[in-house]
């Protein structure tokens, strides 16, 4: 499977020469029958991919550049560019061509050639997104719910908790057997290390894989990172697994692609990005989704990350990403500065397909919560005028504060769905309605301390049987009594 | 026009030498007055074909006595020369001038046009030759045959 220069040369009887080099992009003359997307190999056994064909030369993105020199001989392989990997990748940190970056030695196990440019599943293979994906974060699971196979953009300013949210989601899902792939695009080595440590600390690394396009690597390698992540995700999906793919982040990816395109002298478009930037990203997102594999449903859930500057989501790449995904979670820097955790602005966040995965009960509770939050927001605007508030408004504000307190969640404090619903139930109940906020806080701490207990899975089965809000309120009352006994 | 000029050019080295002579002449074009043939009279004996080509061009009124037209004429020559096809050939021995001429004439007869040889001596191929032409690579070396034999 490993291509060798001499063998390729003898096999295809074609030769090319690197006529010029700029950064990691080589212009190669010769190779008369080379095709777009084909893998080529230099005499120093370094691989690249043909990314453009001109009259005289082929533009080649070189993924290995240690021994790259102008004048070197190049042979075609006759195959589209592929990366080699398999199940041995789990628990590892690798670069975009799946070479290890950790100190655990070579990647073991079976080695499969994974094409980086695969066709997306067609309409016949796709099925409706109908299984909820629990992130463990109340605000998301209740108000902007997600489903397996969804492509949800995570957008916001830097340092607003996007990565932390994603890591918690990965931890939550890895424990359920979902394969988690985190692709770091142009992030510093120390950031990648932090991600690795977090996943290890929470016991999620054995079902996870980190693909890191580091800034010290050649630009084409960083550009390759999301494609490589998707190729690995497709491999695991075809093995019958649900896969979550995090692409952190696509705005940086667009910048690297812009750099490559400008070096290749392709005509720049808006903000100097190349004209095909939308296509490149959209074609990648299209490969995610929920599909049927035999009698099973398998999925690739994609979480592309987009960065904004001072909450401006109207940028070129940001709007592109919003346009090609099934919704977005907006991490609001203003909310973050106010101390809200997670700093997700639910009024500006959208989940286009996640809502269809909810049960009727969840739907009703979410609607109730959304209404109360909207009332609270309006009431807060009135408070600004400093007028004496009527009793009703005071109650709305009081409840709003309690809701905010319940939705406040720090990293590493994932809550099971049944507990989330129970807490909403308590917010609706007379008990918490009458209690002062300080006592509610104490109750909440007591309940949250038990979030890791086993009995929540039995709660989930009980909740499945509940058909009306009346029954639910009764159920909440019973369960609350259990906590009061302790 | 350049067929005659490269009649006695067989190798890439010969071609490069012709190229540098033309470049020198280009510099001379702007020095002094008069026809280009007068300025080119100082050319080496073995490059007289270039001198004759210039004379012919002056007779056909392709080039005049103004430096600009002389420079452009030489530039067009260089452009044409750069498009002459080159066959890269690896041999196990250093060929004599007669052998080079023989190969060159054989190629011209077979292909129907002049092809310049870029000869590389590589004893590792043992015998035979490796040919590279316009991106095509053909290995007719003895080393390859021996390797095949060992693989059996």
Q: What is this structure, in a nutshell?
A:
With 486 residues, chain A is an alpha/beta fold. Chain A is built from 16 helices and 19 strands. In chain A, a hairpin with a 4-residue loop joins strand 3 and strand 4 (47-53).
Fourth-level CATH superfamily of the largest domain in chain A: P-loop containing nucleotide triphosphate hydrolases
Largest sheet of chain B: 4 strands, mixed
Shape of chain B: elongated
Strand residue content of chain B = 15-25%
Strand order of the largest sheet of chain B: 2-1-3-4
Helix content of chain B: 40-55%
Number of helical regions of chain B: 7
CATH class term of the largest domain in chain A:
Alpha Beta
Order of helices and strands of chain B: HHHHHEHEEEH
Q: Mean of the pLDDT scores of chain B?
A: 87
Supply Rg of chain A: 26 Å
Q: Largest interface, per-chain counts?
A: A-B, 12 and 8 residues
Q: Tally of extended strands of chain A?
A: 19
Write up what this structure looks like.
- The complex is a heterodimer of chains A (486) and B (152).
- Chain A has three domains: 76 residues, Elongation Factor Tu (Ef-tu), domain 3, CATH 2.40.30.20; 275 residues, P-loop containing nucleotide triphosphate hydrolases (Rossmann fold, 3-Layer(aba) Sandwich); 125 residues, ATP synthase alpha/beta chain, C-terminal domain (Lysin, Up-down Bundle), CATH 1.20.150.20.
- In chain A, helix 10 crosses helix 11.
- Chain A is elongated and about 85 Å long.
- Chain A is α/β, with parallel strands linked by helices and 486 residues long.
- The mean pLDDT of chain A is 93.
- Chain A has 16 helices and 19 strands.
- The termini of chain A are far apart.
- With 152 residues, chain B is of the alpha+beta class.
- Chain B has two domains: 81 residues, no CATH class; 66 residues.
- In chain B, 52% of the residues lie in helices and 16% in strands.
- Chain B is built from seven helices and four strands, in the order αααααβαβββα.
- The radius of gyration of chain B is 20 Å and the shape is elongated.
């Amino acid at each position: 499977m490993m291509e060798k220069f001499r063998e390729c040369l003898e096999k295809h009887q074609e030769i090319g020469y690197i006529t010029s080099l700029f950064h990691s992009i080589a212009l190669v003359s010769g190779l008369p029958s080379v095709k777009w997307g084909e893998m080529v190999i230099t005499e120093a056994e370094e691989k690249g991919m043909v990314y453009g064909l001109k009259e005289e030369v082929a533009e080649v993105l070189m993924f290995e550049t240690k021994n790259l020199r102008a004048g070197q001989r190049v042979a075609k392989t006759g195959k589209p560019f592929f990366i080699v990997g398999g199940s041995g990748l789990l628990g590892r940190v690798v670069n975009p061509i799946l070479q290890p970056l950790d100190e655990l030695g070579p990647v073991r196990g079976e080695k499969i050639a994974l094409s980086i440019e695969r066709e997306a599943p067609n309409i016949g293979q796709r099925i409706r997104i109908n299984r909820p994906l629990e992130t463990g974060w109340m605000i998301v699971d209740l108000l902007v719910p997600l489903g397996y196979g969804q492509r949800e953009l995570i957008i916001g300013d830097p340092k607003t908790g996007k990565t932390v949210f994603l890591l918690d989601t990965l931890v939550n899902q890895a424990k359920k057997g979902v394969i988690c792939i985190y692709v770091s695009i142009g992030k510093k080595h120390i950031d990648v290390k932090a991600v690795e440590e977090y996943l290890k600390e929470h016991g999620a690394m054995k079902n996870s894989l980190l693909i890191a396009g580091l800034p010290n690597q050649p630009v084409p390698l960083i550009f390759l990172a999301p494609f490589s992540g998707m190729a690995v995700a497709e491999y695991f999906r075809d093995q019958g697994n649900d896969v979550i793919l995090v692409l952190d982040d696509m705005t940086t990816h667009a910048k690297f692609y812009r750099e490559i395109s400008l070096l290749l002298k392709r005509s720049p478009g808006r903000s100097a990005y190349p004209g095909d930037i939308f296509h490149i990203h959209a074609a990648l997102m299209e490969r995610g989704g929920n599909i049927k594999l035999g009698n099973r449903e398998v999925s690739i859930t994609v979480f592309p990350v987009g960065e904004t500057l001072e909450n401006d989501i109207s940028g070129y790449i940001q709007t592109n990403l919003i346009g090609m995904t099934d919704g977005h979670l907006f991490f609001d820097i203003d909310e973050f500065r106010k101390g809200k955790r997670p700093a997700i602005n639910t009024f500006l966040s959208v989940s286009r397909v996640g809502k269809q995965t909810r049960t009727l009960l969840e739907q009703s509770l979410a609607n109730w919560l959304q209404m109360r939050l909207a009332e609270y927001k309006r009431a807060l605007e009135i408070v600004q005028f400093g007028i004496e508030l009527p009793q009703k408004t005071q109650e709305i504000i009081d409840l709003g504060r309690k809701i905010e307190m319940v939705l406040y969640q720090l990293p590493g404090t994932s809550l099971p769905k049944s507990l989330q619903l129970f807490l909403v139930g308590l917010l609706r109940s007379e008990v918490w309605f009458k209690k002062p906020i300080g006592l509610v806080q104490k109750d909440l701490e007591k309940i949250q301390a038990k979030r890791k207990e086993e009995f929540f899975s039995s709660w989930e089965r009980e909740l499945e049987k509940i058909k009306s809000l009346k029954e639910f309120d009764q159920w909440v009352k019973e369960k609350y009594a259990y906590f009061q006994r302790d | 026009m350049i067929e005659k000029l490269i009649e006695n050019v067989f190798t890439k080295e010969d071609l490069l030498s012709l190229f540098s002579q033309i470049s020198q002449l280009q510099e001379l074009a702007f020095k002094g007055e008069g026809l280009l043939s007068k300025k080119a009279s100082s050319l080496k004996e073995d490059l007289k074909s270039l001198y004759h080509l210039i004379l012919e061009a002056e007779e056909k009124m392709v080039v005049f006595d103004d430096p600009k037209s002389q420079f452009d004429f030489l530039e067009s020559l260089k452009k044409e020369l750069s498009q002459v096809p080159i066959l890269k050939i690896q041999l196990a021995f250093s060929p004599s001038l007669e052998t080079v001429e023989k190969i060159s004439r054989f190629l011209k007869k077979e292909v129907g046009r002049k092809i310049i040889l870029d000869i590389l001596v590589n004893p590792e191929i043992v015998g035979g030759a490796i040919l590279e032409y316009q991106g095509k690579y053909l290995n007719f070396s003895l080393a390859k045959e021996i390797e095949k034999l060992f693989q059996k």
